[in-house]
Amino acid sequence: MTLHIDADVKFDSKVLTDVAEALEPFATEMFKQRRGRWMAVVELAHVERTEPGPDEDKNPAVKVRVVGIEVAGDEISGGRLRSVQREMYERRTSGGTLWQDDSEVA
Prior knowledge:
By secondary structure, the protein is of the alpha+beta class. The protein is 30% helix and 25% strand. A three-stranded mixed beta sheet has the order 1-3-2, covered by helices on one side. The longest helix has 19 residues, at 75-93. It is flat, with a radius of gyration of 18 Å.
């Protein structure tokens, strides 16, 4: 039996040097395109866990930080990442459907 905790996810705003350096080549384009979108591979790390006291009306929370990122630099890479994202989404949401049995969901 899997324990389900209704936890909130928060992002730590600290930008590590490696992450900033990976984003630097895209900074001007990101500044110019107010509604732009960029595909990227992102690595998250656990930073902090908050467990409210028994009398507090709050959800537990986990804070994560981006510790690694690579942005797709062209349409081909962006398309490949979108394809992977779509596959991951389908796998995550397919439990109980014809595509995948509930017992196979990781």
